Batch of 3 targets.
Target 1
Amino acid sequence: MKTLIVFAHPDERSFNGSLLKETVSQLESDGHEVKVTDLYKQHWKSQIDEDDFPVTHEKGSRLVVAVESQKAYSSHHLTLDVVEEQEKMKWAELVIFQFPLWWFSMPAIMKGWVERVFSAGLGYALPDRYGAGGFEGKKAMLIVTAGGGESNYSARGINGPIDDVLHLINHNMLFYSGMTVLPSFVTYKTDYATEEVFQNYAAKLRNTLKNIETIEPIKYRKQSGGDYVIPGGILKEGLERPGETGFDMHIQKD
Amino acid sequence: MKTLIVFAHPDERSFNGSLLKETVSQLESDGHEVKVTDLYKQHWKSQIDEDDFPVTHEKGSRLVVAVESQKAYSSHHLTLDVVEEQEKMKWAELVIFQFPLWWFSMPAIMKGWVERVFSAGLGYALPDRYGAGGFEGKKAMLIVTAGGGESNYSARGINGPIDDVLHLINHNMLFYSGMTVLPSFVTYKTDYATEEVFQNYAAKLRNTLKNIETIEPIKYRKQSGGDYVIPGGILKEGLERPGETGFDMHIQKD
């Protein structure tokens, strides 16, 4: 598969950066074509602002981001750095987001990549969303390194279950924009990992990647699949498990 | 109360920017002292990187962000822009984060503010966290404008319940760093709001702010309050409502 890895860590010698090398070498040795967007190395501009719309937005006039984003995207007037990333996204069949979990989310520099690259008309093209949209047909996966221990992210852990912590990325960004989302690969206690711990995680990661084409995606419910009352986006009664609340309701049950 | 408003919107004429003016004028007319950090206007540097540690980190050497952050904070060698924001945080009794909900979280520029200003030793000072830490004794509140409709954020809404969507900010950032968190003020369908809709929200917001000193905080469970098994951070059995899962478990029940 044509694979784009969006990578956000300021030091390639980190645990996370070392895992990136494993990811690239495993994918390439399995015959996949790989491109890497290294956000820190590229000095990626993190915030979306009026400089993103140099031709279509009159400097100093009202800036409604979604409107300007749509205008600049559809008229091919986005900035070159954004256009290059969008070309990579269009090329990719699999998109891997690899990052350290900072404050329980992606680093600001990667959040800014999503804000700038997932333009209106491409990353969101309402009313298409949640299983439909500009990135339909692509697969996505997170590779995440967490500083904390695994128990903190377990079902009763104080940080919240890891699947819930990553839900706003997996479901509300990646599935939202049409992608099929594979289960995330997460490592814990990363800052203090020994070489042995790293090698164990690396082996597990290589094994996951070997099977990347057949891994079952997370079974999120498509907005247009009949499970929701439209308009309103309300899940119909009786589809969830008894007592189930919150994010879990939006995953189909077998 | 001494109030710091951290504001992230690229246009002060937006719905969000107009709400900011309401917030400031109401707080000041009630006798509160107000400072505003306007991230876009300040050209805030969004990403944390080695330039954050100009004295204590040798350029090009290994960069472990938490370690460098602790080192630079404790030796008073952070950059001036960060030091100024930390001084405002130390001064404040109430911190309001006001932003548009982009991709179901705060804008990248504000995420970067948290990454850079909540230094190790201040914003997180392990093992103190969740109800203890550098910002103990301060109150925090979100003022959020959402583009989508309210039903999408209801208990069965496809975006997830708004309290869950904001949980990673309220609980895992603000409560984590020691602050007491007030319920968020959220407006919906903001991009297409009429003047009448704005005025209704503005009146509701002013009324909330008038009562700011007596609003009941969200009853998050303190990590050191006896509800968790330490180490491990696991919620003890039987404290949650029957069938309750996920983020909700970490809120005390009456």
Target 2
Amino acid sequence: MPDFMTLALEEAAAAAARGEVPVGAVLVNSKGEILAQNGNRTEEWADPTAHAEVLAIRAGAARRGSPRLPDCDLYVTLEPCAMCAAAISLARLRRVVFGAYDPKGGGIEHGGRFFQQPTCHHAPEVIGGVEETKAAALLKAFFKEKR
Amino acid sequence: MPDFMTLALEEAAAAAARGEVPVGAVLVNSKGEILAQNGNRTEEWADPTAHAEVLAIRAGAARRGSPRLPDCDLYVTLEPCAMCAAAISLARLRRVVFGAYDPKGGGIEHGGRFFQQPTCHHAPEVIGGVEETKAAALLKAFFKEKR
């Protein structure tokens, strides 16, 4: 588990270097094989949906040839937003492991808490706060520089 | 407005013909020019995020070269889900006009009601129920055939 989060943190750092909000994600199957990994690319690709989680899920699903990945886990450095939480549910992921909690934009432990809604038809296992300090430090440095 | 919803309904019917859940969307700028239109393609493209709304937003943003489309309106035949509602907010759309209400999967008037959450940083104007009967009839026919 720590190895995948370390990779996700490297994707987040690479995103920051590209001028993107530093969030990274790694999609892993039940054998521990990496299917996809990416960082935020919303500005680079002019795509408001190009969050790290969505890019990893889309790439993994394309590789599998199926929109459903029920044996897969997603490691992501920040609590997914409402869009990404719902995408995780639609992809039927088994588990989501995230780093820093996001009171301002998170959609799992904050806001609409999608996985707890009756309109959510698949809720993955959730593990939050893994390597939280490192993920938060990346974000803090990024936004400090922006100001 | 009715013309764009008619186009969205045609996209929904085309989606049904491809074996997809029949939802269609049309993205329009403030001059009434169509930037993008599409229907659901989650199965065809093996992409759980390939909802009509996301595809229209992604195509419109790519065409503009910007992840933000603050002058644009989205016409969609069904109440957007949580993922699509959040994508609409992230894209900073001006307005969303939808057809049928979706108590089982909707994310605007149902479930987490994303636009009403403190974690939502841009809420568009919302007009629901436009051509609701036609949109609902398409969905009903599709799911009746599937059973």
Target 3
Amino acid sequence: MNNPLVGIVMGSDSDLPVMRGAADILDEFGIPWEMIISSAHRAPEKTATYAREAAGRGLAVIIAGAGSAAHLAGVIAGHTPLPVIGVPISSGALNGVDALYATVQMPPGIPVATVAINGAKNAGILAAQIVSAGRPEVREKIIAYKQKMTRQVEEKSALLQE
Amino acid sequence: MNNPLVGIVMGSDSDLPVMRGAADILDEFGIPWEMIISSAHRAPEKTATYAREAAGRGLAVIIAGAGSAAHLAGVIAGHTPLPVIGVPISSGALNGVDALYATVQMPPGIPVATVAINGAKNAGILAAQIVSAGRPEVREKIIAYKQKMTRQVEEKSALLQE
Amino acid sequence: MNNPLVGIVMGSDSDLPVMRGAADILDEFGIPWEMIISSAHRAPEKTATYAREAAGRGLAVIIAGAGSAAHLAGVIAGHTPLPVIGVPISSGALNGVDALYATVQMPPGIPVATVAINGAKNAGILAAQIVSAGRPEVREKIIAYKQKMTRQVEEKSALLQE
Amino acid sequence: MNNPLVGIVMGSDSDLPVMRGAADILDEFGIPWEMIISSAHRAPEKTATYAREAAGRGLAVIIAGAGSAAHLAGVIAGHTPLPVIGVPISSGALNGVDALYATVQMPPGIPVATVAINGAKNAGILAAQIVSAGRPEVREKIIAYKQKMTRQVEEKSALLQE
Amino acid sequence: MNNPLVGIVMGSDSDLPVMRGAADILDEFGIPWEMIISSAHRAPEKTATYAREAAGRGLAVIIAGAGSAAHLAGVIAGHTPLPVIGVPISSGALNGVDALYATVQMPPGIPVATVAINGAKNAGILAAQIVSAGRPEVREKIIAYKQKMTRQVEEKSALLQE
Amino acid sequence: MNNPLVGIVMGSDSDLPVMRGAADILDEFGIPWEMIISSAHRAPEKTATYAREAAGRGLAVIIAGAGSAAHLAGVIAGHTPLPVIGVPISSGALNGVDALYATVQMPPGIPVATVAINGAKNAGILAAQIVSAGRPEVREKIIAYKQKMTRQVEEKSALLQE
Amino acid sequence: MNNPLVGIVMGSDSDLPVMRGAADILDEFGIPWEMIISSAHRAPEKTATYAREAAGRGLAVIIAGAGSAAHLAGVIAGHTPLPVIGVPISSGALNGVDALYATVQMPPGIPVATVAINGAKNAGILAAQIVSAGRPEVREKIIAYKQKMTRQVEEKSALLQE
Amino acid sequence: MNNPLVGIVMGSDSDLPVMRGAADILDEFGIPWEMIISSAHRAPEKTATYAREAAGRGLAVIIAGAGSAAHLAGVIAGHTPLPVIGVPISSGALNGVDALYATVQMPPGIPVATVAINGAKNAGILAAQIVSAGRPEVREKIIAYKQKMTRQVEEKSALLQE
């Protein structure tokens, strides 16, 4: 099997139903990925090691999803030169606004490419867009994917007229 | 001069003081960029044309900054297979929360890689991380940049002890 | 059948249960309408074309409903001189606050007449008020509708006394 | 002078600097307007009378601007079959979020066409779009206005390249 | 039967399950009340008439409950010298924050005594506190009620120890 | 001099510029008041004693103003059968939203009659409305005050026409 | 049995399902605790007495949990030199944001150590960290607890690979 | 000089004006402290090392202040068994709400004792309360500090009467 290009990290196994969306769309684009559970707070060394070794292991992008005070994506971004995509996950009383702010409001110097709350699917597409740079076949798939979405809108709109 | 790799688009010339931060950091990383003003609402065709032609013109990333109901990044993302980075800009009564939500909460299928409110500098760094894929010299500069930040923290902390 | 005066556009077929409220009230006022699904992001050209041709096709008002980063109404407003009514639709973790801000906080030059979150019925009434200008029979129906609402309040209040 | 087509109502003379924006743009479109101060709370009868007589006096649209618990637009909408445009005005500790919610979240049956916080200029444009129905010369001016905005974007973008 | 001292007004019969809480506690304090449905928007004249006649009919306090853009309490307060208690009612996507802001953020000159979202019971207690001024037997009941609450806390705490 | 009917309590002398608004309007209505600084946290016993003795000393209403985690009004309400009016005061990073929530969201059993953020003037008017019950001369002054406000709206609106 | 080191106070027995989380984790660390129901508003004297006597009775920390306008932790902190941990509890329309602000935004001089909304378990861990100062066996248990969490992350991540 | 008992960490030297408040109050209580600048993102190893060694070096509490996506306190808490106090610092467009959520909403297992936005003084008092456990002279100073605050309230209230 091909070496993974995208690392998907989540803070807890309870985030799996959301984060699987990233893996599914990467499969659709034919991009190899790997998935681990780690935590900026409960497993800080595992997280730091994973992030520090990612570029050397050939990963091109890291997707990190977490809820509440979602530090995972930012902490990983502190340890790697790779682009890091953050997925704020909705959980608890604040419905993901806490995770959104904790993911997107990174201070100058350490960006996290943040997608919508629970937007793991979009995180996967964004990862595909990033790795498509030197991979024309991925670029083609992205273009085809967009065309398919356009057709689906047309078809649903047509159904409405019946 | 080299062809631009990053397109920086902003909705209004009032966004320039913020968005210049993206250009400055790209200069620091030696990545050629171009900058235009366009608007999803006041110049929709210009925006669509720019976005549709970007990949063909050799751009690798588009950074789009806008305030209020910030549709610019999302609209551009609808027209291009390239990764699009959105910079929500603080303006008016809602202080940029409107721009943040309008930029980051994209529906499934069309991601926008959102950075912090007014986070144009981080948008530039993220763009550099993205284009660094096949460019080891950019990767090196990013690593050096991170090391410089670490040293600056050390120096400032040392100053505190005096 | 009469040519439609009101175009109802929604970003996804999942918005149909909400947006049908606009069509129902327009039926009650005897105002012909049409309904399509389009998307500012997944079908940007269809959206632009629809908006650009709307006035020429005899439409008087466009109602656009969308959720999340709801760009649909604003994008349509960028392409047409017609009044555009925006319906922010509640969906996902932010419960429609994202859609409200993305719809109402339009920058100067391109207004969107925004109604309440999920307020499609009010969008229909507002459309009727707008088309009633040269149509005294619609004006009469609006006045009668308001009188009926007043009577219903009276009747419900009377029931309370029993 | 022509009879006014648009009534501009504001809750306090402190709202005048914002609300003048609506009058200015209506002047630009050649649409006659009138302006009064009234208050849903301090002058409720004046407000009700104004709203009830507006249609009979030949007004086609009412624009109402108010801050804080902004009831003015909604109360006027309760008394008239005309379309009512609400302008939430930023004031006090909540920065206009209170006025936005109190203006836009109208219950079913009584819509208020809400524009952005402090968006009086857009309220004027929206009013022009509404009265343009049977007035082709206004429609033309709106189209020209949009084209001018597009040109201005082009010009500012061109300036950036110098 | 005694003449009512407290008028309970609600914007819709859907508010009855919440607003009944005010009537129940007034019964407990032996304070006669009346209850009507009216609406600042759908029945503005009924609302104005009720508010204008309330003091003359012997009412001492009005409690008004409404959801969404909750104008009812403020509009009533504009028409009466009596103290008006506002109950913001949770409904729709904003969960009552809209009703809270629209009720409490009244401009200078026209106060509304606002209680918690859905806090109709507290509105009843507050009304009792207000009418207790010249009625020592009500004052006694309020004191007894507070003592009962204290005892209940004691009892529940004691149960915890078992 | 007459015994005070209204006690005005504030958490800090920094609240005085806001809270003076309550005293000024009570002077205008000829209602005697007293003013103290106390604190639910820094002077809890003084606060409790003041609240417990208020009714016996002849006070009819207590107005309490505080910022941040504004517990003052609620704590006073726990110690007295009198109606307590709360004034949330804007201070610090949250601009008074914290004070509003901490004042208005009282649990069942202990109401606080909350006015707008920084709404001390309205707190004074509300106190006047409450003490007007057995005092027809206060009631008259409130009616006259409302009429004066209506006239002022008329006058300002007339000025606009010149 | 040992004297309790941690006092757990809650405003209502409805808070018990949340607050039990604090007791459970203290049991796990072998730290004796006691639990009472009290209320800053319904049982203010009980609350004040409990807080004033806590240090003398040998308690080292107080954990206080409450919802809505959560004054309990702050009021207790006003009466004791002990560290007080506040648990904002989610209840009602505002989902615990009111309780969070009312607990954490304490004015200078009286801190409350606030944990996440419904974060009673973390309140227990924090209490254990505080009492661990002179108790090496507790410190050891905390270290072991953290190691166990790290192992669990590893195990769950390993399961993902299968 | 005595070994420091409290470590004060801040994410940037721009946080110094706020964080100095913690040091000042610790001086007032006679508790030795040390202060460093570190960053969860720009100096992650320094941060981890500092946190891991803190307990062994004799620190009893760590105070961490940061703004925006404030991960500093949480990351430190992941590396130490000591109690960690978090100070959310107001900065940028979201005024510290982002820092508050990112600091307080920690997931189960890793608490951060959060104080008010910019509440560094209270962080210092809380640290003193925590280290006072085995230090009766600190406990005495805390009690005296509280008594002084009470007297100051009395004095300011007395001034008001003059």
